[in-house]
Amino acid sequence: MSKVCLRVVVSGRVQGVWFRRFTQQKAEAHGVLGWVRNLADGRVEALLCGDEINVRHVEAWMSQGPELANVAELLSEEQPWQADYADFQVLEDAEA
User: Is 76 within the bounds of a domain?
Assistant: First the structure.
């Protein structure tokens, strides 16, 4: 299987609805490594690394998000492979 990293940014009603925690659960369930965090502008950003099929599953889930979310847009771009993650973390909010 090919390995891939994706930087994903979601906008809409994605903060205050447990988006990061559910993303962490989905990533862990699919063996995806990386992180997720809130951005100061109200969006959520994630770095997803792992087997491409599993990363794409998490990306697809993020396009909908948890029940209370309302995802308006999902942007993703491939990033260079980063093997330095041992798990999937919820990071502190990004500074403005």
Answer: yes
Lowest average pLDDT, out of 30-34, 71-75, 91-95, goes to 91-95
Give a yes or no: residue 12 inside a domain: yes
Please pick, among 20, 37, 43, 70, the residue that the annotation labels catalytic: 20
Q: Is 20 marked active-site?
A: yes
CATH number of the CATH domain containing 44: 3.30.70.100
Task: List, in order, residues 6 or more apart from 46 with CB less than 8 Å away.
Answer: 7, 8, 9, 10, 23, 34, 35, 36, 37, 62
List the catalytic residue out of 38, 54, 56, 70. Answer: 38
Tell me the pTM.
0.94
